């Protein structure tokens, strides 16, 4: 029995039974790397994190890595957002964490790449697969992939959920940490301190109310205040506070008002 199923639905199901929430990608990396080797791919595991968990990128080509620069690369990511949602299969659908992002895409890309090299062996050397780790948190895998030997495609097909439509462009990502300093003191004495949280709330309110750039064709700049931390006690002025904000940009120059 092959390591990786050759049926796209069965392969999606197989991959979705593996917990690969960001930080736990080691097991799925092992399975996919060994499965691709079994299918005749030259597999290079690129170390990304030094945590000893095997959280590596997988770069697979039909000729030895570095001997040729493939023109076409199929790309997606191993990790999912938390929490793990157990897989459920019905007569006509799969439900569970990773089905929509991005294990369904991993399965489709693996099947498509194998079919392409089987039906067009003359193109095989120009086809590669690149699956990365850490996409949902810090993009370290995709950043590190730029250092791969023999990596420099002309065409990159990225597996992401796009509501079953083709997308030729995507928004840029900008992640910001807003850190604010206050002065610690007992909250019963307003003159004795300054709350970093109060100051942070004012900044976040400005972000919420600001008219960020919009484009009739590419859409709106969007953002998410994804994390907030700060304070040391309910009856103390917060000495420190911070928030994490993620922006999806349509234009960096418009975002910075420098166009």
UniProtKB/TrEMBL annotation:
Which UniProt keywords are given for this protein, alphabetically ordered? Zinc
Is Zinc included in the keywords of this UniProt record? Answer: yes
Residue spans making up a coiled coil are none
Q: Which InterPro entries match?
A: Peptidase_M20_dimer, Peptidase_M20A
Q: Which GO terms describe its molecular function?
A: hydrolase activity
Cofactor(s) the protein needs: Zn(2+)
**Family annotation (Pfam families):** M20_dimer
UniProt-recorded name of the protein? Peptidase
What organism does the UniProt record list as the source?
Answer: Pristionchus pacificus (Parasitic nematode worm)
In the UniProt record, what gene is named as encoding this protein? Answer: WBGene00274971
